[in-house]
Amino acid sequence: MKSHKSGPFVLPVRDLIRKPGEMREHALSIPAPERWGEGIVSIPQGGELAVEARLESVHEGILVSGTVDATYEGECGRCLREISQPVEVEFQELFEYPGEEAADYEVQDDHVDLETLIRDATVLSLPFQPVCQPDCPGLDPVTGEPMTQSAGERPEPVDPRWAGLQEFAEQFGSEPTGADSRKEES
Ligand SMILES: [Zn+2]
What we know:
alpha+beta, 2 domains, 5-stranded antiparallel sheet, about 15% helix, binds zinc ion
């Protein structure tokens, strides 16, 4: 007799097995069972994982997809300030029916266990070099204290998401605002 697993990540699929086309959605709030992540930021044990999962019965098994919203904690990789940032992670995996070859993810008896899938997706999404803000100036090399925004020139490249905006600002920003006054409003 096989063991009956239970736990917040274990979802019953008895009603979906071998019924392609059937699907069901779950919204779960699960405390992280342990610290997730080995880097300078991680999901703390007990941190809330807001999981939305869709289970779809397909020919080969149960297709599981969804999102998890969590908050990672740790410190800024530049200034060492403590940070806490939300992260949203997408996941998708086919839980196959047991066959001749062992699959990474399988339907077990009448359930699927999402813990490994959700943990791996979440840990992989954690930033390798987390920062408190994109232009964090880091630590003063002399004093070792966090530098303030105004200190010195900014050694870091502009965040690519803002590069276009900066070009725009350099192109038009220096013109006096009065230059627009000849524009005709209708
Ligand atoms: Zn920082």
